[in-house]
């Protein structure tokens, strides 16, 4: 890397966890993205990209939420799809000590791009690892194993109270991905973890698939 011998540096994960001799074997594996920085809190000089490798289930394209939503017992399926889209925001803000802010915006300004549904919240934010896990088809937030659980700030499934109060409003269990492809053609998630200065962005597009 052409680093002068007298210069100090650190190697970190995308979540700004410094790689040390003690945690190397746990954090470093094939495909992991690392930063070489002068310090853990150094500002990134430019945007970085991390390619997520996973094989999407064919249902993502073939069904795209149609079967589950059109089988909604004669009810209008659109509210259920929108409910799926704000489920992440309800979970992310459930531990807020202050105000919980969740905004739902319908965007129709052609000069800003195609029509879109935007869900914005002031929750804890997601790391690149958490965004990666969200992208995996049919990987429920209640059944994710391994790294995700330890990287989810101690998420505990809410007590069995009415759906609207416990952030567990997922009606069909198909998650945000099928809701996205039921409503539109792509998803863009932009998140900044509360404990990090970095902003992470995930794009899932039917066209790209």
TrEMBL record:
Query: Which InterPro entries does the UniProt entry name for this protein?
Result: HATPase_C_sf, SMCHD1
Pfam families named in the record: HATPase_c_3
Signal sequence coordinates: none
One GO term under biological process is: double-strand break repair
| CDD domains named among the record's database cross-references | HATPase_SMCHD1-like
Highest rank taxon of the organism: Eukaryota
User: What is the designated name of this protein?
Assistant: SMHD1 protein
Organism equals Sinosuthora webbiana
